[in-house]
Amino acid sequence: MTLLEARDLRVEFVSRGRRARAVDGVNLSVAEGEIVALVGESGCGKTTLARTLLGLERPVSGSVRYGGTPLAYSSRALKAYRREVQLVLQDPTGALNPRHTVYEAVAEGPRIHRLPDEGERVASALSRAGLRPPERFFGRHPHELSGGQRQRVVIAGALALEPRVLVADEPVASLDASVRGEILALLLRLRAELGLSALVVTHDLGLAWNIADRVAVMYLGRIVESGPVEHVLTAPSHPYTRALLSVLPDSPAPVVLGGEPPDATRVPPGCRFHPRCQVLASGAAAAAGVDGLCVSRPLPVLPSSPGAHVACHHAEATMLTGRADDRS
């Protein structure tokens, strides 16, 4: 069952007369017990989309749905919703008040929601997050903990509310390589033990490969490719996905993208990736007869259904050619 969903979501910001289309038509879903990775370079709209799914930003159109019901934006409705859908921030040092003890940090959520058995909730959450015995950490302050322990405290703070979905924004970006695997293993264990769903926002495709069931690749405010993680990361169809994958250590050669970095105030006509597209620049799009479409015809918003989807004129033409060859 789909638990958290964005339907044709659009979020805009206006500054000095310029309108930035930060999220420009996104369909995205997270099912019960599923981990979805949202990947893309900085500035593509990942964090804005995550904030909108949490109710921290309001869309100009489209909707956020939880359990099939559109999100309401009254204070009471948002408070109830945020007990079910919890945020795990990128920087555990910035997320924790340096004056609060670990106990106070984890107990903050249950106190806001006036939940019973505070001490038991805090101890259970810390234990599930891998800080055992939990009582040993109650009186400690953030500066007395390692980076990995601080991230576990942040996760425990979310778990204390017994949520059904975690939205994790770059959850291991600030951690040492030796600790990253431990936090990823923790998220997988929480999914197995508690049935938690998660949306993991990251620029790291290696992380997506290790933790996600599905991956959605975002560029300039829109999902340009999505599907099962094995399909997207082993046989990417979109040239932007191939460029992202090319920087991984085992890639044969990096793809250097030309043109300007994406600017949400100036979305180009046609395919929004075409000014930087290596397929168009190499002449492969022209050989397939779609170069005119690339620069003039916009691509439709991809659906949120579980299958593999791509928004690329060249990929569509290639698939059609392959089907014709199969029939012949």
Automatic annotation (TrEMBL):
Q: Which CDD domains match?
A: ABC_NikE_OppD_transporters (cd03257)
Q: Does the keyword Hydrolase apply?
A: no
Annotated ABC transporter domain ranges read 4-245
Query: Which UniProt keywords are given for this protein, alphabetically ordered?
Result: ATP-binding, Nucleotide-binding, Transport
Keyword Transport assigned to the entry: answer is yes
Record-given protein name: ABC transporter ATP-binding protein
One example GO MF annotation: ATP binding
Similarity comment text for this entry: Belongs to the ABC transporter superfamily.
Q: InterPro entries in the record, alphabetically?
A: AAA+_ATPase, ABC_transp_ATP-bind, ABC_transporter-like_ATP-bd, ABC_transporter-like_CS, Oligopep_ABC_C, P-loop_NTPase
